[in-house]
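Q: What would this complex look like in 3D?
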Amino acid sequence: MFWDIVTWIFIVVGLFFNILAAVGLHRFPDVYTRLHAGTKCTTFGSIFLIGAVVIQSIVAWTGEGAASIQSTLTIHALIALLAILLTNPTSAHAIGRAAHRSGVKPAQAVVDDLEEAQKDESA
Amino acid sequence: MPWLAVVIVLSICIGVILIRLFIGPTSPDRLVGLDTLNTLVISSMVVLGIAFKSAIYIDVAIVYALLSFVTTLFIAKYIEKGNF
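A: Here is my prediction, written as structure tokens for the whole assembly.
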């Protein structure tokens, strides 16, 4: 019963952050702020959604004994979470770097420190 | 636990993100939409795995995560230089 309540909280938090990512992709003005919404919020929301899955399958695992299918489910869900945690920030960094190098400017930005640093380097 | 309802809400989010994927003004915008969409597909596959109690969905999710990472890196490389 206690773990059911924890699972509900995890599901609500995870869905909230995933919906926030979808809304943020439409509300933010340029690619860098959209990157902020689109990758960080989905990483955080996926941690909580997969955490809910892991909690429920561990509860079922302890009920059914060691040889149940829930053992495979738990361990593979943790591996999927590890894959998301490793790949998502890396691809976000690659997108931001590619966007800046291809000449997309930040909207309403006054100071662009990276551009000034690159100018100083080349001069 | 309402796992199928969770998948339906995630599918609505994916639909909203698809709009950004189609209208995005620049190509990095579309790439951000694609990356977000991939993460949501992975988490909904994991939730489908426990909804139908079969581990094959989660195995597919792991492979999808690694392949979509490689795809995003290659498209970012293409946007950066204009060629491979």
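A: To summarize the key features: The helical segments of chain B are 3-23, 27-51, 56-81. Chain B touches chain A through 47 residues (CB under 8 Å).
Q: Very helpful, thank you.
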